[in-house]
Automatic annotation (TrEMBL):
This is Phosphatidylcholine 1-acylhydrolase. Its EC number is 3.1.1.32, 3.1.1.4. One of its GO terms (molecular function) is phospholipase A2 activity. Belongs to the phospholipase A1 family. One of its GO terms (cellular component) is cell outer membrane. It comes from Flavobacterium hercynium.
């Protein structure tokens, strides 16, 4: 039920808030927040982390490396379709059993997509991105190891203060139930995110909460503490804790608790979602 209200909210905000896009100076400034970034840029966090489980024995097979590569391509430097900017996106997340004898890749998840992004300002001058996206996620396998689903997603992300950025995202999942029984229960229908600049330019913290379809069960929580060792460089040392389900598609029904340490490259500006 809450997804219906989220989608309605996204549509109303995207098309009606603060008058029509680009009619005022603040609307041009909102568009500049996208245009000042290179057309090819970081999408989600790019990271390389190594860690151990907190809910089981630590062995050569349970410790691993998790890394993610994520980028986006803006397709036009001028808005289309009522002020939206078109994007192509791609994210690849891998789980590498680097400490095992043969060092196999346990799982790789592929997440391409297309998006329309509209920048605008909420009351009080809060820069906000409204996004509509269609995405595919799968692990590229077949037979009983195949995991795949698609989504039509709607999101809002807003810089509500110089230190706080918050986001809300909901989706319609399109799942092949033959390959992925009950996957919707675990991926849920939405997520909420928040970032806080503890010491701007040096220390920050991120939280990502995904709600499963059950009242109390399923879902996941991922938190990060980031430290930027050099003010003029765009990488951080990161401590990440993940607890819950669907960290990887292959084991989406397994509850994990992993603590990892490594480095991350973040988007230079506020990410689109």
């Amino acid at each position: 039920m809450y997804l219906k209200y989220l989608i309605t909210f996204c549509i109303l905000i995207s098309f009606n808030a603060n008058a029509q896009l680009f009619e005022h100076d603040k609307d041009f400034r909102a568009a500049d927040s996208l245009l000042k970034e290179a057309s090819f840029s970081v999408h989600r966090d790019n990271y390389f982390l190594s860690g151990v489980p907190l809910n089981g024995p630590i062995t050569r097979n349970s410790a691993d490396v998790k890394y993610q590569v994520s980028f986006k391509q803006r397709l036009n430097s001028k808005p289309i379709l009522g002020g939206f900017f078109p994007y192509l996106m791609y994210t690849q997340k891998a789980f590498w059993d680097i400490y095992a004898n043969s060092k196999p890749f346990a799982e790789i998840n592929f997440n391409p997509g297309i998006a329309l992004v509209r920048p605008f300002y909420l009351a009080g001058g809060r820069l906000t991105y409204g996004t509509i996206s269609f995405e595919h996620e799968s692990n590229g396998r077949d037979s009983i190891y195949s995991r795949t689903w698609n989504m039509l997603a709607f999101s809002l992300k807003s810089q509500i203060s110089p230190r706080w950025t918050v986001g809300l995202r909901g989706w319609f999942p399109l799942v092949d139930k033959d390959d992925n029984p009950n996957l919707t229960n675990y991926v849920g229908y939405g997520e909420a995110s928040a970032s806080y600049q503890i010491k701007p330019g040096r220390w920050s913290a991120d939280v990502l909460f995904r709600k499963g379809s059950g009242l109390l069960n399923y879902g996941s929580l991922q938190t990060q503490l980031n430290w930027k060792p050099y003010a003029n460089e765009n990488y951080y040392l990161t401590l990440q804790w993940f607890v819950g389900y669907t960290e990887s598609l292959i084991d989406y029904q397994r509850q994990d608790s992993m603590l990892r340490l490594g480095f991350v490259i973040k988007p230079e500006n506020m990410s689109i979602f």
